[in-house]
Amino acid sequence: MLDLARPDPVRSDLLDTLALKGIRHGFFTRAGGVSDGIYRGLNVGLGSNDSREAVVENRRRAAKWLGVPETHLTTVHQIHSPDVEIVTAPIPYDQRPKADALVTATPGIAIGVLTADCGPILFADADAGVIGAAHAGWKGAVFGVIENTLAAMEKLGADRARIHAVLGPAISAANYEVGPERVADLIAADGANEAYLASSASAGHAMFDLNRYTIDRLTRAGVAVDHVARCTYAEADNFFSYRRTTHRQEPDYGRQLSAIVLET
User: Fold this and answer.
1) How many domains does the chain have?
2) Distance of CA 211 to the CA centre of its chain
3) Are 168 and 238 in contact (CB under 8 A)?
4) For the chain: N or C, fewer Cβ within 10 A?
5) Residue range(s) defining the domain that contains residue 25
6) Is residue 3 part of a domain?
7) CATH number of the domain where residue 79 is located
8) How many other β-carbons are positioned within 10 Å of the β-carbon of residue 220?
9) Does 5 reside within a domain?
10) Mind listing the pLDDT tens digit for each residue in 67-108?
11) Is position 234 within any domain?
């Protein structure tokens, strides 16, 4: 059963080591929200067809857990791109830039991304006081959202040798089947991507290991890496999943938040 009283985010041991340096993070689950029906729990997606009042309350609860006012929880209008925004002040929800990652060196602003199978990545250089959050679906990961986020953090004074990066809950390879067009896209982007594709029961399809692909990109980028190995598709009580919703022929789906903040 979900605990409707309060959010209870999954956390990374790697990032938790930075708590004494004023960094707070969480990969939020469905726990602690007021939405019901197919959105049951902590749905933070105002782009869903859930009640706006419920989503606003869920975002308020997440912001409170992060220790910031509701107005200081900053997200983006995600477009499956490699684009990154540098944040120096809270961004109102209706003014969100179209991008898939945020970085900041400003304390008191919680930056976050929304997911429902794609990979949420949280970044931190505690010594420099620079943090980041990225939404890495297959397209963003393949075309550089990880590397662009790190470059933006470096512009703010981060050193990638000190950066901790954590991949949060996402769809596992066992549940992520892609069709022939996506297989072709991945191989066209880099022939080495074939290593992340396994055979499927469906002709021409493949099982894509987005998690391993993302971790390998992070490792090659030279940062310390952790992985919260939880499958959004398999854990229906804990996470929203676009693919699970599609397979169940449900009309819509919720989104969970992954966020990080430099405490004031």
Assistant:
1) 1
2) 12
3) no
4) N
5) 13-262
6) no
7) 3.60.140.10
8) 10
9) no
10) 999 999 999 999 999 999 999 999 998 899 999 999 999 999
11) yes
